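Example record

The entry below shows one chain as it appears in the dataset: sequence first, then structure tokens.
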Amino acid sequence: VQVVESGGGVVQPGGSLRLSCRISGGIFTISNMGWYRQAPGKQRELVASISPSGTTDYADSVKGRFAISKDSDKNTMYLQMSNLELEDTAVYYCNAARSAGLMYNYWGRGTQVIVSS
């Protein structure tokens, strides 16, 4: 299994970025998937999640600004980030997990997002 993020970068406040996460290894359609982030000096936190059926959930801090989605044909999950704020600066990590039956928990290496004026 490989989990590979891409799409990070430097953006001004109010700008947008789209992160991508490709998950190989045949687990894409059965995984609970999520985007986490970790800012310097802070704990890793869940930003958004999407279930195998497509149910989504968001942290209060990003509701209305971020959108999680997935394309099963491409084995790729996305995080569309809009109206970015300075506080969104962090390393963003992709996660694929399953807590029943065949259990696993896979992480990518992260992609850096810097929001700076």
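Notes for this example: The longest strand covers residues 90-98. The chain has no helices and eleven strands.
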